[in-house]
Amino acid sequence: MKKPILGVIFDLDGVIVSTDNCHYLAWKKMADEEGIPFDRTINERLRGVSRMESLSIILEKATREYSDAEKEAMAARKNGYYVELIGSLTPGDMLPGAMDTLQMLKKKGIRIAIGSSSRNTPIILRQIQLDNAFDAVADGNAITRSKPDPEVFLLAAKLLGLPAENCLVVEDADAGVEAALAGGMRVLGVGGAAQNPKATFAAASLEKADFNTILN
Ligand code: BG6
Ligand code: MG
């Protein structure tokens, strides 16, 4: 029998808030300084992927090897640029339908959580004034294995006090869809992940999602 959805775990970047361009601009500045080719097509591959794994993807185009210390320094430099950019985020950067969806779920008594690979989750939630909106937050600071490993979503479910089978994940990245399914959760693919045939449900954005069908 189908288990009821009692908790919804949201990815942050690309689901609740639009940070894509900030990530792109910060990596682009770092890559330009190093003379490494980087464009928006490569940037698409960084969706849902951790900071160091993102750097590894960018370094596929590098013409020399970088030591671990150099890689740490490059990732830290990118993060410095990124943190400066997200300092300008406001609640207006929330994606269409995000706020209404959170309010609708709360009204129904469904518990809500964040499950994000980003170690900047606390800063972003503060900027968009959602730092007290969620029943649980699992982020890149609390995990050791990033998506497609289910660790972040399993932690979010645990913090919500719910079994995986009672949770729905909302994701915009294919790595996140894989992670949710690997954790035994259903998944609503939005944005880029709406095209993923493995997603249990799909919608162009949270605004377009049919929660009457999803929750029944
Ligand atoms: C994910 C983003 O949410 O967080 C990725 O989709 C990003 O693009 C990852 O690399 C890690 O983010 P941060 O903020 O810890 O560098
Ligand atoms: Mg995302």
Which terms summarize this structure?
single chain; 216 residues; alpha/beta; 9 helices; 6 strands; 41% helix; globular; binds magnesium ion
Strand order of the biggest β-sheet: 3-2-1-4-5-6
- Tell me the fraction of residues in β-strands, as a range: 5-15%
- Largest beta-sheet characterization: 6 strands, parallel
> Which structural class fits the helix and strand makeup?
alpha/beta
Shape: globular
Radius of gyration: 17 Å
User: Order of SSEs, N→C?
Assistant: EHHHHHEHEHEHEEH
User: In which range does the helix fraction lie?
Assistant: 40-55%
How widely separated are the two ends? Answer: 12 Å
Task: Give the count of helical stretches.
Answer: 9
- Enumerate the spans where pLDDT stays under 50 for 5 or more consecutive residues: none
In round numbers, the mean pLDDT is 97
Total beta strand runs: 6
Distinct small molecules bound, one entry per kind: 6-O-phosphono-beta-D-glucopyranose, magnesium ion
Structure description:
By secondary structure, the protein is α/β, with parallel strands linked by helices. 41% of the residues lie in helices and 11% in strands. A six-stranded parallel sheet has the order 3-2-1-4-5-6. Helix 1 packs across helix 4. The mean pLDDT is 97. Bound molecules: 6-O-phosphono-beta-D-glucopyranose and magnesium ion. 6-O-phosphono-beta-D-glucopyranose binds next to helix 3. The site of 6-O-phosphono-beta-D-glucopyranose has 17 residues, from helix 3.
